[in-house]
């Protein structure tokens, strides 16, 4: 959930299946890195507790935005999402991931996007461990073959 004074943007499940953001990323690190740019809360404030996946699945809602273009401009969000947030204090955008175009963004948004992608998003320890194990196996496996300039990992049998 991203808050800007009295308006909220709640980022619920970003992934297909039962995984949530906190299953994949270190939420405390995310919040800490971005605390000087945006206020982030882990749970919806009580006044927005009605805003659930079930609520949006049961009918057309004024706070639900399903028409975000795949590569929406920052201006599109200002014209279409900001008024909903100003009217209701909350907006549900689904699907949300990869909906903001990467071209022609105002410099402040580019800086925030870079900060999120390269500093704030950090995997939880168990995912980092799996990555370290995979890198170690790929790097130090004796079963490597050279093929067309690329390395292919083969299991030793």
Automatic annotation (TrEMBL):
Keywords: Carbohydrate metabolism, Fucose metabolism, Glycosyltransferase, Transferase. InterPro entries: GDP-Fuc_O-FucTrfase, GT106_glycosyltransferase. GO terms for biological process: fucose metabolic process. One of its GO terms (molecular function) is glycosyltransferase activity. Belongs to the glycosyltransferase GT106 family. This is O-fucosyltransferase family protein. It comes from Hibiscus syriacus.
């Amino acid at each position: 959930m991203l808050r800007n004074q009295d308006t909220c943007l709640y980022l619920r499940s970003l992934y297909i299946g039962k995984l949530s953001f906190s299953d994949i990323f270190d939420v405390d690190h995310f919040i800490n890195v971005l605390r000087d740019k945006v206020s982030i809360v882990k749970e919806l404030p009580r006044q927005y507790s009605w805003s659930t996946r079930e609520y949006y699945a049961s009918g057309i809602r004024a706070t639900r935005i399903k028409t975000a273009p795949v590569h929406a401009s920052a201006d599109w969000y200002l014209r279409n999402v900001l008024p909903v947030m100003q009217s209701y204090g909350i907006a549900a955008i689904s699907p949300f991931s990869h909906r903001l175009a990467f071209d022609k963004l105002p410099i402040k948004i580019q800086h925030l996007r870079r900060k999120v992608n390269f500093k704030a998003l950090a995997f939880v320890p168990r995912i980092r461990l799996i990555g370290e194990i995979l890198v170690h196996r790929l790097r130090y496996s004796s079963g490597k073959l050279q093929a067309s300039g690329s390395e292919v990992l083969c299991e030793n049998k």
